[in-house]
Design goal:
four-stranded mixed sheet; alpha+beta; 212 residues; single chain; 8 helices
Length: 212
């Protein structure tokens, strides 16, 4: 707790030499008023020093919060694509970035996607061998380093189909989500090959599960 101006006045008076010339209870003389002026400035400095303790913790920092964000590279390009850059969201993501070591497990990426409102399922592939099941994918040796993120839910999902009124040069279908792809690719292991798939819920309601 910061020391108040009145407390500083009392401490300054205690530094005076003893004797009747320097009465501690005097509040009207010139030196007493000077003590009050000095005490106000000392209390201000003490308050700022006390605030620095709070500012040293990014969970509570206010004045130095922009510096915390700059130090940790926030908001980055993924957050700018996401668009939610209010102070509460930035603070939560800053703490997550500071306290998260990182991991290469599927659950790490599932939790990462959930932080941004996405529901994903991850498929991991492996090369086909004599130990594989009959319904396994016939894959060669490069597939152990390949995985796919299936985006089931998210506000920025784009999955559209060619319509009869569309132009002939249009693709039959197009899909993507720049936010989730930016997030996953940022933390994806460098030696792996990553693919994305997107689910169409409208088709699922008709009893068909279509994935691009």
């Amino acid at each position: 707790m910061a020391v108040t101006a009145n407390e500083y006045v009392g401490m300054l008076k205690e530094l005076l030499p003893p004797g009747p010339v320097w009465p501690r209870g005097d509040s009207t003389s010139l030196y007493a008023m000077m003590f009050e002026v000095w005490a106000i400035e000392l209390a201000r400095i003490d308050s700022r020093a006390n605030a620095l303790i709070t500012e040293a913790d990014p969970r509570f920092a206010i004045e130095t919060f922009p510096e915390w964000l700059q130090e940790w590279g926030l908001p980055d390009e993924c957050l700018k694509l996401w668009g939610a850059t209010d102070i509460n969201t930035l603070r939560r993501l800053l703490i997550w970035k500071m306290t998260t070591v990182g991991c290469q497990t599927p659950q790490f990426f599932i939790d990462l996607a959930a932080m941004f409102g996405y529901l994903i399922v991850i498929d991991e592939f492996s090369g086909y061998s004599v130990m594989s099941r009959v319904n396994d994918v016939l894959a060669d040796g490069i597939w152990p380093h390949t995985w796919r993120v299936n985006v089931i839910g998210g506000s920025n999902n784009t999955l559209q189909w060619h319509e009869v009124t569309g132009e002939t040069k249009e693709a039959l279908a197009w899909w993507g989500d720049s936010v989730i792809e930016c997030l996953i690719r940022r933390y994806a292991p460098a030696h792996t090959t990553l693919y994305f798939g997107y689910w169409d819920f409208k088709e699922q309601e008709n009893g068909q599960s279509i994935r691009s």
